[in-house]
Amino acid sequence: MKIRKNIPLIDQHDKFGFWGGKFGGNFVPETLKKPVEDLTILFEKLRKDKKFVKKRDFYFKNWVGSPTSFIKLESLTKHLGGAQIWTKIVSEANGGAHKIYNATVHCLIAKRAGKKYIVGDTGAGYAGKMLSMAAKKFGLKCKIFMGAKDIKRQKPNCDAMKKNGAEIVPVYTGSQTLVDAVSECMRYWVSNCDTTHMCVGSTVGPNIFVKICGWSTSQISRELFLQIKQEFGTIPKKIKLLNCVGGGSSSFGFWNEFMHYDKRQIEFVGIEAGGPKKSKRHAAPLTYGSKIGILHGAAQYVNQDTEGQIEETESISAGLDYPGVSPLHCFLKDTKRARYTAATDEEALNAYKLVTRCENLNPSLEPSHAFAEAIKLAPKLSKNTIIIVNSCGDAHKDKDILRQRLGKF
Ligand SMILES: Cc1ncc(COP(=O)(O)O)c(C=O)c1O
């Protein structure tokens, strides 16, 4: 299994939609075959259409607010010693997280497909908030599926969705988290695909949804590539790109432009949710060697029991609380292009505390997992190593959890 040069990773699947011959695919019911095929044809046409790409770039710049800042975290670097720590503050994007890129592109596609309704899933609430914002902007009626547990723990984002006129459909099945929200959303789309476009909130789902999302979030690394060159005059010899991984959309978008660099020069480190220290449950299928299974229309490494039933996950971070992971990341793991590890709830909270104490930055619980790894790594590395963390979400949504767990600190 090898990554090919000069072909975007999102296109390195076989004719059946599998990356590396085994990850991804299209495990969809008969009724969805045609809508998925139509969407594939439309997307492949649009991404080659210069006018469409120009329109995307217009909205990325003038509405999303690209490019987001790339800065050195001077105090944190000084505090830890060793490697330099930098961050790309993707949370500066409109709405407060990277999910806006995928949501914007899906709404533009829905308009071109002549659809009036759009549905989506959400965990941390950012995918839902962004879809509601984009739907409002482009005049689409929006419905968001969200687990009942997540509705409780991510209230600020739910308030935003409602304010944008979206309907939130609470999901009470299973663990009442993201995995159940995606399932319900897909079920809804099966019966409403004639009138409704579906936005999958991460690089998961049937092949075409992985591709659309990856194509959209890659804007992050396109910007970062130019920003690194501008800052250092070249691409430095030792860079580590650290990103939290739930479904995998922010990490894929953060890495894509650097895919063909040697990993000794640019290493990709994905940080999954290890869950509470004392719990056996986690949301880290890549780190803990979960087996391949089918989830949400795609083959992937996924937490499962001995009978192949999807296992419940546990994480303080609603955005990472997902048993599976993008087929793109399964491929990156098997080709050894990326390395994956996990941070526990406690490590993420401690990282949040340290980062906010040292810097004027407020990373949500998802990127706090990536900062936890930066904190572990930096002291062991030389000053000329550059660690870059994707600060992909703002912690405003986590204020209740942070107050409960940390009190006033
Ligand atoms: C701020 C933030 N970061 C990361 C994630 C994880 O998703 P992904 O791995 O697709 O970036 C989420 C998901 O909701 C999120 O809201």
Task: Summarize it.
The protein is α/β, with parallel strands linked by helices and 409 residues long. 42% of the residues lie in helices and 17% in strands. Strands 3-4-14-9-10-13 form a six-stranded mixed beta sheet, sandwiched between helices. Strands 7-6-5-8 form a four-stranded parallel beta sheet, sandwiched between helices. A two-stranded antiparallel sheet has the order 1-2.
- Anisotropy-based shape: globular
Helix fraction by DSSP (H/I, runs of at least 4)? 40-55%
Tell me the number of helical segments per DSSP (H or I, 4 or more residues long).
15
Identify the strand order in the major beta sheet: 3-4-14-9-10-13
Q: Mind telling me which CATH architecture of the largest domain this is?
A: 3-Layer(aba) Sandwich
Strand-residue proportion: 15-25%
Describe this structure in words.
Helix 11 (about 250-255) links the parallel strand 9 (about 240-245) and strand 10. The protein has two domains: about 20-60 and about 100-215, Rossmann fold, CATH 3.40.50; about 65-95 and about 220-405, Rossmann fold. About 40% of the residues lie in helices and about 15% in strands. It has helices at about 30-45, 50-65, 75-80, 100-110, 125-140, 150-155, 155-165, 180-190, 205-215, 220-230, 250-255, 325-335, 345-360, 365-375, 400-405, and strands spanning about 20, 25, 70, 85-90, 115-120, 140-145, 165-170, 195-200, 240-245, 265-275, 290-295, 300, 340-345, 385-390. The strands form four sheets. It has a six-stranded mixed beta sheet, sandwiched between helices. Strands 7-6-5-8 form a four-stranded parallel beta sheet, with helices on both faces. Strands 1-2 form a two-stranded antiparallel sheet. With about 400 residues, it is an alpha/beta fold. Helix 4 packs parallel to helix 5 (about 125-140). The structure holds pyridoxal-5'-phosphate (PLP). Pyridoxal-5'-phosphate binds near residues 127, 245, 320 and 393. Pyridoxal-5'-phosphate binds next to helix 5 and helix 11.
